[in-house]
Design brief:
The chain has about 260 residues and is mostly helical. About 65% of the residues lie in helices and about 0% in strands.
Length: about 260
């Protein structure tokens, strides 16, 4: 008699599959050059991607299968899909150079995910769990699509030239994903009771702005994340110095045998 699978292990995987459907739908909209819905689908996919792991840990439904599925879906949603969006939106005008830049981003996303999968089994000190190594793939996809998001927002009305920057954005984003720059993981941060209400109010406001000013809000959020990268770098240095002037081999963001 086969052992039944707990519903707790199925729910996170269902959410991951739904995120995959959104990513594939984003590709479909990209092929017909409907970039509005393509970006919206990827945004929803990113929200589900952030939710499935947290829900899995909350209901104790984590599994090795779920982790592998999540990584494969991330490659499609935040590697292939955004690369196709930026290519069809502008990079195709650069000919072979534009396609090489597209391949570069997808390859870097794949390498970043492979490194994350291996490093996730490395034992870390609790304080290190607040940081990623390099920019994670969902954030990388968001940075890559900032020129597209800007063109879809009302901000573009006050900017005379937003074209011809996608190639530079691809190169910068690709570097950030495979770099060893510490970035915030936003997983272990704890909210103290005095500011819980403030966090709830801010969350509600962001959601309201996202519904009514979708692309303007996405662009501002993207800029804020870019601003957080140097902040996280210096924060990591300060916390590292506080815990130990020299991190031991086991207290490392990634193991020595990784890229």
């Amino acid at each position: 008699m086969k052992k039944a699978v707990s519903i707790r292990a199925v729910i996170p995987n269902v959410i991951t599959v739904l995120a995959l459907c959104l990513g594939l739908t984003s590709i479909k909209f990209t092929l017909i050059q409907n970039f509005h819905y393509a970006v919206i689908c990827l945004t929803l996919a990113a929200i589900l991607d952030a939710a499935d792991g947290r829900i899995a840990r909350l209901i104790k439904g984590t599994s090795k299968f779920g982790a592998e599925l999540d990584s494969l879906v991330d490659f499609v949603n935040f590697g292939v899909a955004p690369a196709l969006i930026i290519y069809i939106w502008e990079l195709n005008m650069y000919g072979n150079l534009g396609w090489l830049a597209t391949l570069l981003f997808v390859i870097c996303c794949c390498l970043r995910l492979a490194r994350f999968n291996v490093s996730s089994v490395v034992t870390k000190s609790p304080w290190l769990e607040n940081f990623f190594t390099g920019v994670p793939s969902p954030a990388g996809a968001g940075i890559l699509l900032l020129p597209v998001i800007l063109s879809l927002s009302n901000f573009s009305n006050s900017i005379t030239q937003i074209n011809n920057i996608s190639l530079s954005v691809v190169l910068i984003t690709s570097f950030l994903m495979i770099s060893k720059i510490p970035t915030y993981a936003f997983k272990k941060f704890k909210v103290t009771k005095p500011i819980i209400l403030l966090v709830m109010i801010i969350s509600g406001l962001v959601f309201g702005f996202l519904i009514n000013y979708t692309f303007e809000t996405l662009f501002v959020v993207g800029l804020l994340y870019l601003l957080s990268i140097p902040i996280s770098f210096f924060h990591y240095k300060i916390v590292k110095k506080k815990h130990n002037l020299k991190i031991s081999s086991k207290d490392s963001l990634i193991s020595d045998d990784l890229l």
